[in-house]
Each structure stands twice: as C-alpha cells, then as structure tokens.
C-alpha cells in the first residue's frame, strides 16, 4: 500500500529565515506530486505540482519554490520567509485526472 | 477558471441527525471526489464517483454523481461526534491540465453530542 510522509509536522520560523519542507511517497512509482497551502479557514490552494523528476509547475507566483530531486521526493523551499507564508502545508500524490491522496501536513508559523 | 460551489458552508447538528451537503459546478465533471479533513490533519478520500447517476456508500456515508454531471451530493446518516470536520468536494480539471483537482471551499460540520 502507498504511504505519504511529511516533515516536520510543525515549524516555527522567524521572518526572513529559509524554509525546507519535505514530502516522500512509498509504495508507488512515478506519481504526480502536489504542494497545497491551507490558510486559517478552509480553502486548499494549489502551489506546485510535478509530473516527473525535475518537472515543476507553479500555480501561484510567490515567495516559494519546489523541487523534485527523486521520483518520490518533493521539496518545498523558501529563501526568506514572510509572515504571509504561515499556514498548513499539505503534500499529495496522485495519478492523471484522478484521485489525490494527502499527507499529514506541516503547520508553519512565521513570527 | 473552474469553480465548485459547495453548500452549506457550515452545519451545526445534534448527534443522531442526518446530514446533506452538495457541490455544484458550472461545467461538466467526469469524476467527483469527496474528502474529509479532521482538525490538524490532511484530507482523507471518502468516496470517488465516476459515472453520472452513480450512488456509492461507505458505511454511513452515501454520495451521488448528479445526472447532469454538474453536481454531487454527500449524505451522512445518524451522525456521531467523530463526523466532525471539513468535507470537501473535488473533481479533475476540465479543458486544461489533467493533473489538477478543483476543490470546493468545504462544509464545516459540527456535531453536538
């Protein structure tokens, strides 16, 4: 069966500091990978997705970047965090045009 | 772009009551997905629907793929406190990338014991 991991689970970072969130998937190969952000409240905002190693599509121009160095690894980064980067970050994997499966999330607080 | 209108935005019910929520779209969907998100956790897929008119159950949950392919419904029977959470509808993108899902804004369900 497939499993998706995210770490860290929670993170408190000062404004201007760098960020690196990691997501890994087990039990499947060549998945589509996704990063979402969920602000306080409810909506899920798609940030990046990747259909293969080194292939990144950005949905929203912002202070973040993503990379996919390995087939089942997806990393979300920032060089300098802003207060507005606070939120709940969710990684997901899926197949073309079909279901997506979410990780447990990372709660980021920028102070 | 595509939008999914999900209603109601929130519901406050008593334990034991039945719950109904729905999702509508301005365009046709070929798949409807329903997720539940509990506080502090990632969304979990509850039910996936692939055919117009399809009715699928998962325990006390029942979801239907509308005949027009522009709507879907989720019902929860005999609610219990652990049903608390946010319920999202979602579907694959249409007319553009096949890799993305469009999500509704969610229905926040509170169950009073």
Descriptive notes:
The complex is a heterodimer of chains A (111) and B (113). Chain A has no helices and 11 strands. In chain A, strands 2, 4, 5, 6, 9, 10 and 11 form a 7-stranded mixed beta sheet that branches. The N and C termini of chain A lie far apart (38 Å). Chain A is mostly beta strands. The relative contact order of chain A is 0.33. Helix content of chain A is 0%, strand content 58%. The mean pLDDT of chain A is 93. Chain B has no helices and 11 strands. In chain B, strands 2, 4, 5, 9, 10 and 11 form a 6-stranded mixed beta sheet that branches. In chain B, strands 1-3-8-7-6 form a 5-stranded antiparallel beta sheet, with no helix packed on it. Chain B starts with a strand and ends with a strand. The mean pLDDT of chain B is 92.
Estimate the mean pLDDT confidence of chain B. 92
**C-alpha Rg of chain B, in Å?**
14 Å
Number of strands of chain A: 11
* Poorly predicted spans of chain B: none
Cα-to-Cα separation, first versus last residue of chain B:
40 Å
Radius of gyration of chain A: 13 Å
Largest interface: pair, residues per side: A-B, 22 and 25 residues
| β-strand amount of chain A | over 45%
What is the oligomeric state here? heterodimer
Helix-strand makeup class of chain B: mainly beta
Helix percentage range of chain A:
under 10%
Note the run of SSEs of chain A as H and E: EEEEEEEEEEE
- Identify the overall geometry of chain B: globular
How much of the sequence lies in strands of chain B comes to over 45%
Features:
heterodimer; A: 111 residues; mainly beta; seven-stranded mixed beta sheet; four-stranded antiparallel beta sheet; 11 strands; B: 113 residues; five-stranded antiparallel beta sheet; globular
Quick synopsis:
Chain A has 111 residues and is mainly beta. Chain A is built from no helices and eleven strands. Chain B has strands at 4-7, 10-14, 19-25, 32-37, 44-49, 55-58, 61-65, 71-76, 85-92, 101-103, 107-112.
């Amino acid at each position: 069966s497939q499993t998706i991991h995210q770490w860290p689970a929670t993170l408190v970072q000062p404004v201007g500091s760098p960020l690196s969130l990691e997501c890994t998937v087990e039990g499947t190969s060549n998945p589509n990978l996704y990063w979402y952000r969920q602000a306080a409240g409810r909506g899920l905002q798609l940030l990046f997705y990747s259909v293969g190693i080194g292939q990144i599509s950005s949905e929203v121009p912002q202070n973040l970047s993503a990379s996919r160095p390995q087939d089942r690894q997806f990393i979300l980064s920032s060089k300098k965090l802003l207060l507005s980067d606070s939120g709940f970050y969710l990684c997901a994997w899926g197949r073309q045009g079909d279901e997506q499966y979410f990780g447990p999330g990372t709660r980021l607080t920028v102070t | 772009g595509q939008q999914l209108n999900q209603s109601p935005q929130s519901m406050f019910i008593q334990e034991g009551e039945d719950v109904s929520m729905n999702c509508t779209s301005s365009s046709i969907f070929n798949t409807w997905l329903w997720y539940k998100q509990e506080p502090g956790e990632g969304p979990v897929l509850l039910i996936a629907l692939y055919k117009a008119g399809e009715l699928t159950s998962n325990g006390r949950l029942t979801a239907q793929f509308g005949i027009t392919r522009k709507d879907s419904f989720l019902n929860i029977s005999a609610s219990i406190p652990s049903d608390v959470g946010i319920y999202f509808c979602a579907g694959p993108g249409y007319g553009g990338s096949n890799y993305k899902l469009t999500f509704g804004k969610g229905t926040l369900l509170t169950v009073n014991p």
